[in-house]
Every structure is written in C-alpha cells, then in structure tokens.
Amino acid sequence: MGGFEGEGEGGYWENDQVAKWMAQNDTQSKNKNKSNTGVKKVGETYSIKAHAKVNIFLKITGHKDGYHTLLSRFVRVNNVYDTITFVPCECETFTLEGCEGVPLESNTIYKAYKALNDYTGDLDILNYFYQHKVVVTKRIPSQAGLGGGSSDAAAFMRLVKEACNLLISTKELAKIGSSIGADLPFFIYNYPSANVSGFGEVVEPFDEEPLNLELYTPTLGCDTTVVYKTFKQHLLDDIKRASFIGWDALDSKSILENIPNPVMLNDLYPAALIAYPELKKLAKKGWFFSGSGSTFFKVIN
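and the corresponding structure tokens:
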C-alpha cells in the first residue's frame, strides 16, 4: 500500500519503510496486562470500544520522502467511541456490517484484517472469520479529525489478538498498523495521552490528569488528503520548529490555557481554512481544532 497523505494525521506509506522507521524508533508498550485490554466477552461474542482522539496541538516538523513528519499530543476521548463486535455467524467470506457506504476494500478494518493475515500467516484468523462476522456500531463522525477509521482498525486488531490468542506483541501490532495509517500506533498502544512524532510511529505515553472535553462537529467534513496537500502547497515553507520546542513536556491543560490560539496550536487548521473557507463561519470562540478537522473541542472545568 502506498500513497501520499491520508488514513490519519501523518499519512501512510510502504511496509518496508515502516519496518525501518519502527526499528529506529522502537516504542515499548506499558499496557501488557490483559485487564487493560478493554475486551469484553459474553459467550462467544467479543467486543471492544474504539475511542475517538483529539489533538491538543499538532505541529508539522518537516516533509521527507513524500510524507509529513509531525509532533502532536494525542488525547483519548473516553465518552466518544465506536464499538467493534465479533458475532458468531457462519460466513462464506470476511463479513463486515455497520460501515455502509464504504467499499470493503477501502475500509480500514478490512485492511487491518488483510495485514494481520499477511504478517502472521495464522490460519486461525481465517477460520475465525468463517465463524464470526464483524459488526461496527458507529458513533464517531467521519472526516472530523477524531481518528474514527484508524481507531476502528486498531481496536479490531487488538480484539483479534485476544479472540484468536495471537502470540504477537503490542509493538508488532503497532508495526502492522502503521502500514495502514499513521494514527493506528497511538490507538493500538491505547494510552490515554501520548506524544506522537515522526511519521506517527513514535508513541510516547504522557502521564497527566484526564481532561473533561466537549466536542463540536459541524456537518462539514474535512478530507485529510486535501488538508495535507493544501498545507504542503501554501504553508510548508513557513515551518518554524523553534516556536514549539518544549510543548511535549507540558501537560495538555497548561498548553491550552497558555496558548489559547487554535491557529498557533494546530498547523493543519490554517490549511483546513484555506481548503474549506466555510469553516471560519462554523468556528466558535474559545474552541480548538482537532487534527485535520472538522471537529472543535474545549475543556469543561
């Protein structure tokens, strides 16, 4: 799979590139305890929540080999999530319900299924999905900067690991996920808060108090590919890395309180405003812009 930008805030890339980047920036998961997997099992039915995320800040740090690099604080949104469920069902082929309007081959969950099969060669995965279908209960809006598609794929992979008893580490799972989209490693590691850098493959947990967030998502959707291409065309030459040195060491609440300008916090916001001028009318004072949009968020005290 190859391409320019899309499938997450950092784009996507070739599998061999992922292996190189992951080897150079090896991030170990601290959440290996099964009690932290979030998996629920009732009889033969497995389910897991696929949470949304917001970007407290998102700074583009460069452009290399056709891909943008970034530094960002990702924070999980606990009360906004899709649900992925494996339901017993005799299936002639991989069956996915709840994602109407998206061709199967383009769906991130199906891509994750194919990538897991290719990486592991485990026939148990193939056999399992002859006996179970995947049902997605969607709550995260699309093209909203909340990572819904990436979160769904990552949750699917974590659930397959549990249901099929895969002998695979979280680090390996994140490596596989990186071949699908740049946001997947964050969702696979499942940290409440993390600094994400590089091409999205470097995920470092950040210990802080959870934020009580309110989201506002207008009906307008922002295509990640369009926003990134707009940034490259109009704003890439304006990058000043010195302007955000040390942000990754500050807690999210302090960042939002001390840098209340959403344009300063998120490099993709100006690009989104160029690509989608109507966003300016939809923005609310005191709200911040997540990812490539179109969701705005604020902290509720």
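(Above: one complete record from the training split.) The longest helix spans residues 148-163.
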